[in-house]
Amino acid sequence: MDKLTIRDIDVAGKTVLVRVDFNVPRDKDTGEITDDNRVVAALPTINYLLDHNPKAVVLFSHLGKIKKEEDKAKNDMAVVAPKLAELLGRDVKFVNATRGAELEEAVKNAENGQVILVQNTRYEAGETKNDPELGAYWASLGDVFVEDAFGSVHRAHASTVGIAAHLPAVAGFLVEKEIAYIGKAVSDPERPLVAILGGSKVSSKIGVIENLLNIADKIIIGGGMCYTFAKAQGHTVGSSLVEEDKVDLAKSFIEKGGDKLILPIDSVVSSKFGEDGDIKVVGEDVPEGYMGLDIGPKTVELFAKELEGAKTVIWNGPMGVFEMPKFAEGTKAVCSMLANLKGANTIIGGGDSAAAVKQLGFADKVSHISTGGGASLEYMEGKVLPGIAAINDK
Ligand code: ADP
Ligand code: MG
């Protein structure tokens, strides 16, 4: 990796500012954290820093969206402090402010690696605008900056790039891992590189398809988006999800992709969007009154054959409506194919894809599940992510 990481710097006696991703899901009624995965994922970086005798570790994160003043109470970072203290097994000082005397005093008086959690960065209107004054102010509180919020590196905000402009900036372990897997897969993959793309819409994946058409050896298409491709090929699609305004684009992808592009040859269809419809397997044409909700068994066989010998696999987008067990078989089959590929780097990006792999019980059978939904998609599009660009090169 060509970026500096926390292993490359000396933090002894220093105040380390860390951008973490503590944007945790919470119960609508009680406000309690419903899944502490993101806090757990930040622990290796925080613990590593604490093991190297810093003066203080100051943690910054956003939580939820703040559009109006009333949103602040709903997205109070205070909820994370006790959870973090419990997981770290040490005291966490929560500062209910994003600037001012209370924050400055807390940082100045910290000693022996005091962990300080700052209030939600989005309480500051300048955060999402990358207000230079805000980035400079936060940077003035510390000596070095650690970027570890992979889920936010696609956003040029004050806490993700503004601070980094004023301090030595290095990657934490989470960001390092994402660069090692996704960055390598799209810039210097071991071949053959096979991309599997699915999910609901072509429109949300145009950039990913375009980039992967250039770099992958094969592209396998499934999920709801395959019916826009089926329509482009002249097949009937019934009431399947089709984006009419993307049919021409699908046509151009088919032309450009040639033999590289592998499309489904059968589907599991239903007379309604639910498991209580009339469900059957059909070939390439979906009959009137039915919608395609999963890839069919012949397609599963085809995809398995196409995946043979792959050394790198990038997967984004479920093969069917995996949330309903009757339409989860295609996604499950692809999970098993990846689990059984020998010596291959298997990388999952996208929020729903990550959820599918976990829900179907394959989380520990793939090489890497990205922690950033939108960030992983943009990374797969080959875009420069501002939060990664902000990290100092080796
Ligand atoms: P990701 O979040 O991994 O990028 P997407 O958001 O693009 O993935 O797509 C995930 C959604 O696509 C899932 O909710 C799934 O139910 C839906 N989906 C998959 N196949 C179909 C289909 N044939 N018809 C309708 N929706 C589908
Ligand atoms: Mg999604």
From TrEMBL:
Keyword match Acetylation: no
Q: What class of enzyme is it?
A: transferase
InterPro entries listed in its UniProt record: Phosphoglycerate_kinase, Phosphoglycerate_kinase_CS, Phosphoglycerate_kinase_N, Phosphoglycerate_kinase_sf
Instruction: Summarize where substrate binds, as residue positions.
Output: 21-23, 38, 62-65, 122, 155
The UniProt entry lists the main location of this chain as cytoplasm
Q: Name one GO molecular function term.
A: kinase activity
Keywords, comma-separated and alphabetical: ATP-binding, Cytoplasm, Glycolysis, Kinase, Nucleotide-binding, Transferase
Enzyme Commission numbers on file: 2.7.2.3
Q: Which family does it belong to?
A: Belongs to the phosphoglycerate kinase family.
What name goes with this protein? Phosphoglycerate kinase
- Please report the organism this UniProt entry assigns to the protein: Catenibacterium faecis
